[in-house]
Amino acid sequence: MRAFITGGAGFIGSSLADRLLASGHRVTAFDNFSTGRRLFVEQNLANEQYRLIEGDVLDAEKLAAAMRGHDVVFHLAANADVRGGLDHPRRDLEQNTIATFNVLESMRAAGIAKMAFSSTGSIYGEPQVFPTPETCPFPVQTSLYGASKLAGEGLIAAYCAGFGFTACVFRFVSILGERYTHGHVIDFYRQLKADGQRLRILGNGLQRKSYLYVQDCLDAVLHGLDKASPGFNVFNLGTQEFVTVNESVGVITRALGVEPRLEYSGGERGWVGDSPFILLDTAKIRALGWSPRLTIRESVERTVAYLVRTPAVLEG
Question: Could you write out the DSSP letters of every residue in 51-94?
């Protein structure tokens, strides 16, 4: 397989590249290094099966040229800053929706008809059904990030119908693990590293969240893509459990051996667009033979351990 990965130097993309190379596949990683790290790809630079191209998915001409000669596209590049969406409204449109259009057009020009797309459980907004299935009616969108990803899904579905593409859309919960660089664990870790006596928490700490270990995520993506039916496929990815923010804080502080004073901003949401409860129904992907290996608590512990032994990640 000749795989093309957008966001190939990022947390999930670089981990996927390692997995594909270990299985004997050829990989091209395409990344603008806005959030990707050279630290994550340097081990592959001498591998003849690996190619790294520094480029932006908004550069349609460069993207199309780079994509020629591949069999499948893993479109992972995105702006994932849900909390900052209202500060930069156009960023989600450009980096999530327009970028996805560019990827689809580049695929069409290159004759590539198979893709995997990293979407998000945020597209469900604040649903009334838990665990939330793929067939749940969509409520009003609560974040620009979720809305931009849903628009990307719509484009992909239309290309599947109009141009005969086969696509797997994976609606992730938040992903944890080695090479993690963005989210609550690293936010809390930075705070505690600077001052182990206090920890500021957005919201009331009772928000219920679901997370998934990165290697379990990759297992699901590769398995789902292998088992997918022709056309448009959608899979939720997550565990069958959730933790409160307070419970997650407890795992982090115990791992670091600190007992900080907890200070809350208040309210059931940490920010505008923050969903107070996330739990996805993963029965569809499980029916294909996938299940996660790690619990959420184990995923948090592994993430903290990685941050402790890899201080260079905090420098980015």
Answer: EEEE--TT-HHHHHHHHTT-SEEEE------STTGGGSHHHHII
Is the omega angle on the peptide bond into residue 276 within 30 degrees of 0, that is, cis? Answer: no
Rounded Cα gap, residues 63 and 55, in angstroms:
7
Q: Comparing C-alpha atoms, which of 187, 178, 218, 196 is closest to residue 43?
A: 178
Residues 71, 1 contacting (CB under 8 angstroms): yes
Evaluate the CA torsion angle 16, 17, 18, 21 in order and state its sign.
Answer: positive
Give the phi and the psi of residue 294 in degrees, each rounded to 5: -105, 145
CA dihedral 228, 229, 231, 234 (to 10 degrees): -50
Beta-carbon neighbour count of residue 231 at 10 Å? 12
Strands 198-201 and 243-244: unpaired
Distances (CA, A) of 2 to 109, 112, 143, 226, 248: 16, 11, 35, 14, 39
| SS3 at position 132 | strand
Look up 145 and say whether it is catalytic: yes
pTM of the model: 0.97
Summarised one tens digit per residue, pLDDT across range 84-104 is: 667 778 999 999 999 999 999
Looking at 50, 124, 145, 213, which residue is catalytic?
Answer: 145
Listed in sequence order, the residues at least 6 apart from 313 whose beta carbon sits closer than 8 Å to its beta carbon are 37, 39, 179, 180, 181, 186, 306, 307
Q: Which of 213, 253, 254, 259 is nearest to 237 (CA)?
A: 213
Instruction: List, for residues 143-197, the tens digit of each pLDDT value.
Output: 999 999 999 999 999 999 999 999 999 999 999 999 999 999 999 999 999 999 9
Interior CA angle at 309 toward 252 and 296, to 5°? 35
Average pLDDT over all residues of the chain: 96
Whole-angstrom Cα distance, residue 62 to residue 226?
29
Helix (H) or strand (E) holding 285: helix 283-286
